[in-house]
Amino acid sequence: MAPKMVESATNSWDITDFVVNQGHGVKGLSEMKLLSIPKQFIQPPEERIDASKVVCEECIPVIDMACLDGPKVAQMICDAAEKWGFFQVVNHGVPLGVLEDVKEATHRFFALPGEEKKKYSKENSRSNSVRFGTSFTPQAEKSLEWKDYLSLFYVSEDEASALWPSVCKDQALEYMKRSELVIRQLLEVLMRRLNVKEIDEKKESLLMGSMRINLNYYPICPNPELTVGVGRHSDVSTLTVLLQDDIGGLYVRGVHDTWVHVPPIRGSLVINIGDALQIMSNGRYKSVEHRVIANGSSNRVSVPIFVNPKPSEVIGPLPEVLEGGEEPLYKQVLYSDYVKHFFRKAHDGKNTVEFAKI
């Protein structure tokens, strides 16, 4: 198969068929040991990371949650959400073994043969809640991203047990369950600064009414400088909780058009503010652009949990935020409409949030 594919690598239909339809993903291309990436993955120069704009002197805050009861930690969390939109947490209560298990499960899923993985593709999956794919939105992208993913939308324990792939479902579910406490703790802290005294049932639906977990796989790339793992974007979530492996490659937009690397810290979780919380906080908390570079020497995995409003919720600046007469910057938007807008186009930086601006 490999020689035939190398001969036909310039044929876009063959690439799409091999990567997407046959279920081999970008991982299948990587394993063919191509000397150069197919043209479909070459990004325009403006979408590749410019090394001269990477700032090594800056880093996002690392926050120890062991002393969460004290005012200092709460202040650090809120300050980081306002300035950076990103921070890392340690001593967060999710056991290291759970984190290691879900990373291993991610490698197990992507090691499956193409015919197994394609059972979960858009065309073949038994549920919209389970989706294996490549890049982001291939049908809308001019250039593809060098990434495969398995996306798992949590509906119920029963559905997950029945429909999620057996090689990773237990580990993914355990990681989600064990992360619920730190997610709630973070949201309670962030809400207090917005004058929200408690997260009642209505606020819970608005802030964390749905969850999605992705298993991401970034294979070794022959020309990492010509493509991207993930293009510039901000998340549409309330919060994202990201587990990195030890390879690195996540970059966050800094000040003055710079990029700041988020170094892997063993046992830590990367937290970032999503568009939904930026909107609900009326711009006080920042949903920041970020991206992932491709890697020429190592396969990388990451496992984000996207903590989202319930799809049927209407999001807009919270009443508590506007109590003092602050003018709303965003209109009221049905969250499911906001998400559809995000997924119908290629990654395009912070443009999605414009959809909600007044």
From TrEMBL:
One of its GO terms (molecular function) is metal ion binding. InterPro entries: DIOX_N, IPNS-like_FE2OG_OXY, IPNS-like_sf, Oxoglu/Fe-dep_dioxygenase_dom, Plant_2OG-oxidoreductases. Its cofactor is L-ascorbate. GO terms for biological process: coumarin biosynthetic process. It holds the Pfam family 2OG-FeII_Oxy. The keyword Signal does not apply. The keyword Lyase does not apply. Residues 202-309 form the Fe2OG dioxygenase domain. Keywords: Dioxygenase, Iron, Metal-binding, Oxidoreductase. Belongs to the iron/ascorbate-dependent oxidoreductase family. This is Fe2OG dioxygenase domain-containing protein. It comes from Vitis rotundifolia (Muscadine grape). The lineage of its organism: Eukaryota, Viridiplantae, Streptophyta, Embryophyta, Tracheophyta.
